[in-house]
Each structure stands twice: as structure tokens, then as C-alpha cells.
Write a structure and sequence with these properties.
Strand content: 5-15%
Distance between the termini: 41 Å
Mean pLDDT: 95
Structural class: alpha/beta
Low-confidence stretches: none
Oligomer: single chain
Order of helices and strands: HEHEHEHEHEHHEHHHE
Shape: globular
Number of helices: 10
Length: about 270
């Protein structure tokens, strides 16, 4: 098997990708990975300055990208983003729904009661993760349906696969993303053909701004929660953000794979802990 064959097998040359949450740690890394594989990448985030900064990073590395300022919960902004992308590049081939995350108000700490959790915080988390995946899939998925070809990759979580303490709304929302991934895969394939595919990646534990204080102390030693996670991860460590890229590129090229949720977790989901 030659190097040129492998390069072609995993090349995204000529493809146009949209990454929501492209200004985040994991979303940003996936945007860079798509660009390195040859895709032209629209970096979509709520903060224009951060989308521009991520775009400049990609361009400095030799990739092609454009910044898009839009909220994944505002359909009109997503439709405007699609118009801008089509005006520049003509089409959309890949959508990565990386926008999401948890919020303190929807986290139930050991000294709090679920019964007292504010509805507004629970709704905000559910909207960001579940509706924030559904709406971009409607807007950019419709463009893919018109051309009868495209790939959507959603971002799930270990919290969708098994119950975890604290993250009640986040876990429920990500479980909804898993179900939506499977449903949409069937819907698009049956109505628009086998070249429309929908899959998801379920990252294990990667250190980011939202979970750092839960997993690491100020001196970077493990918290009690961090120790529990590492003990249940056969690989014995947290993931590095670049380790998501190979699975993402494969899903973008795997023409007969649809409706699956792929763990990238160092074995966390496979291990019972005993």
C-alpha cells in the first residue's frame, strides 16, 4: 500500500467543512485537522474575534479557512452563514457539530439537591447541546440533501453512555444527541440516498476550560474525580485533543458507515472498573 494511496484515501481535498464550536479547544483542533487533510473550513462560533483568531492559525499552517460569527441556537444566523459559505466556496460537504458543553448552574454538586436545580440553567445546557446540534443539522443538512451528498459528525460524550454524577442536564442532552444521530442517519439515507451520512464521536476525558477544575487541582495533580476517571480508563491517562482528529477524518471518508457513535476514550466505555 503506497503512501500516495493512503494520502488519497484520507484526503479531504475539494471538500468544504463547517465546524460549529470551532473556537473551542476540541472544536478548534478538529477544524485544524480538517484543514490539514485538505478541506476548506468555516470556523463558526459566537465570538467573531475568536473565530478570526482560529482562522488565522489555520491559514498560518497552510490551510484554507474563513471565520463565521453565528449562534447555533439562532436559525437565521445559521442560514446567513450558509449563504456566506456558498458565496465563497459554492457548497457544504461536512458539518461537525462541536458546539456544546456544561454550565455551573446545571451541575449538581454533592451538597446540592437535584430538586432545587434552576430550570433556566437546565434548559440552557439542553438547548446548547441538543438544539445546538439539531438546528445546524437542519440548515446545513438541507444543503447536503439538495446535492444528495454530505457528512454530519455530531459530538457526544461519555455522559451519554452511562450515568455520571453532577452532570444531569449535560448527560441527558448528549444522550439525546446519540439518539438524534441514529435517527437522522436513517432519515437522510432513506430519503436522499446512501451518500448522506450521520455519525457521532463520543470523546472520553480531555482537559478543557470547562472541566479542568473538576479533574485537576491547581498544581495539576488529580482531584478525587480525576483519580476515579483515570482508574476506569485502561489507557491510564486523559486524551490529547489531537487524538480526535484521526477518527473525525475517517468518519468523513468512511462511505458505508452511518448511524454510529464512536468512543474515543482510551477504553473508558469498555471497562467495568473491576
Amino acid at each position: 500500500m503506497t503512501t500516495s494511496f493512503l494520502s488519497e484515501l484520507f484526503s479531504l481535498d475539494g471538500k468544504v467543512a463547517v465546524v460549529t464550536g470551532g473556537t473551542g479547544i476540541l472544536g478548534g483542533e478538529m477544524a485544524r485537522g480538517l484543514a490539514a487533510a485538505g478541506a476548506r473550513v468555516a470556523v463558526l462560533g459566537r465570538r467573531a474575534s475568536e473565530a478570526e483568531a482560529r482562522t488565522h492559525e489555520i491559514q498560518a499552517a497552510g490551510g484554507e479557512a474563513m471565520p463565521i460569527s453565528a449562534d447555533v441556537l439562532v436559525k437565521e444566523q445559521l442560514e446567513a452563514a450558509l449563504t456566506d459559505i456558498r458565496a465563497r466556496w459554492g457548497h457544504v460537504d461536512i458539518l461537525v457539530n462541536a458546539a456544546g458543553g456544561n454550565m455551573p448552574g446545571g451541575t449538581i454538586t454533592p451538597d446540592q439537591r437535584f430538586f432545587d436545580a434552576p430550570l433556566s440553567a437546565l434548559e440552557a445546557i439542553f438547548d446548547l447541546n441538543a438544539i445546538g446540534t439539531l438546528l445546524p443539522s437542519q440548515v446545513f443538512g438541507a444543503a447536503m440533501a439538495e446535492q444528495r451528498e454530505g457528512c454530519i459528525v455530531n459530538i457526544s460524550s461519555m455522559a451519554a453512555l452511562q450515568a455520571m454524577t453532577r452532570v444531569v442536564a449535560y448527560g441527558a442532552a448528549k444522550a439525546a444527541v446519540d439518539n438524534f444521530t441514529r435517527w437522522l442517519a436513517v432519515e437522510l439515507a432513506q430519503k436522499y440516498g446512501d451518500k448522506l451520512r450521520v455519525n457521532a464521536i463520543a470523546p472520553g476525558f480531555f482537559i478543557g476550560d470547562q472541566n479542568r477544575s473538576l479533574l485537576l487541582n491547581a498544581d495539576d495533580t488529580l482531584t478525587a474525580r480525576g483519580k476515579t476517571i483515570i482508574a476506569k480508563t485502561p489507557a491510564g491517562r486523559f486524551g490529547a485533543k489531537e487524538e480526535l482528529v484521526s477518527t473525525l477524518i475517517w468518519l468523513c471518508r468512511a462511505s458505508f458507515v452511518t448511524g454510529v457513535v464512536i468512543p474515543v476514550d482510551g477504553g473508558f466505555s469498555a471497562f467495568s472498573g473491576v
